[in-house]
Write a structure and sequence with these properties.
single chain; 241 residues; mainly alpha; Arp2/3 complex 21 kDa subunit ARPC3
């Protein structure tokens, strides 16, 4: 895969967006109605780069994400975060692989199992989030979690037609790569106990998958329509005297 001018420009643009999200007052987080309370969006530009321009572009934007995380950790007031993300292995490797995983998942999304897989994944995430949210009310837990999961799974299967299934699968793959990669390395390097890493992953990773699937599918659809309109425009004729 060659580095074209367009690919370099998109990497620069999406890399700048990653930094802008990180410097925003909310730190690239948006509120969600789950026990975590918020979900990060900083990895979404790397996913979009992988979808739009392939694994090399996705890796480039992911590298920018990792470099920004590494730089910001130097000044973090949280000693645990500073310890974890000043480790280049934790800061860079999972982030570089976000766009790579998203790119290859996007290419595989034409398979017949894509929509059922997305439906089952969303149903499980919603059911788990409902279960955790209602843990204080045991009588409601099973019914509400099952109903919410079934409804979300059915809606996903209906909505996730091909134009949405591919970016949704890519978003899920990229987000899982980021969450599992970072927390797996954090546990392996001894910065967090494995049980704590799993708990953090369940609390934050699941809502982040849902947010990523929705936002990436919407942005990809808008970009695809824009590119289709541009390609349908007739070329300007240049008349020579």
């Amino acid at each position: 895969m060659r580095l074209t001018v367009r690919r370099i420009a998109i990497v620069g643009m999406l890399g700048s967006l990653t930094i802008a999200l990180g410097l925003a007052p909310v730190g690239g987080f948006i509120p969600v109605p789950t026990p975590a309370g918020s979900a990060t969006t900083m990895h979404l530009p790397a996913i979009l780069a992988g979808i739009l321009e392939g694994p090399l572009a996705g890796a480039g934007v992911g590298f920018i994400f990792g470099a920004f995380s590494f730089w910001r950790a130097q000044f973090s007031a949280n000693p645990v975060a500073r310890l974890m993300f000043t480790d280049p292995l934790v800061a860079f490797v999972p982030r570089i692989l976000i766009g790579v995983a998203a790119a290859y998942a996007f290419r595989l999304a034409g398979a017949r199992w894509t929509r059922p897989l997305l439906a089952v994944a969303v149903a499980g995430i919603v059911a788990h989030s409902a279960y955790v949210s209602l843990a204080a009310h045991p009588a409601l837990v099973a019914a509400v979690a099952a109903a919410a999961g079934a409804a979300a799974g059915y809606a996903t299967h209906r909505v996730a037609r091909h134009q949405y299934a591919a970016p949704m699968l890519a978003a899920m793959a990229g987000t899982l790569t980021n969450t599992v990669g970072v927390l797996g390395l954090v546990a392996w390097r001894g910065y967090l106990p494995p049980q704590a890493a799993v708990a953090v992953g369940m609390l934050h990773g699941l809502p982040e998958i849902l947010v990523a699937m929705i936002l990436v599918a919407a942005v990809h659809r808008a970009v695809a329509r824009s590119l289709a309109r541009q390609s349908s425009r007739p070329a300007l004729e240049v008349k020579h005297p």
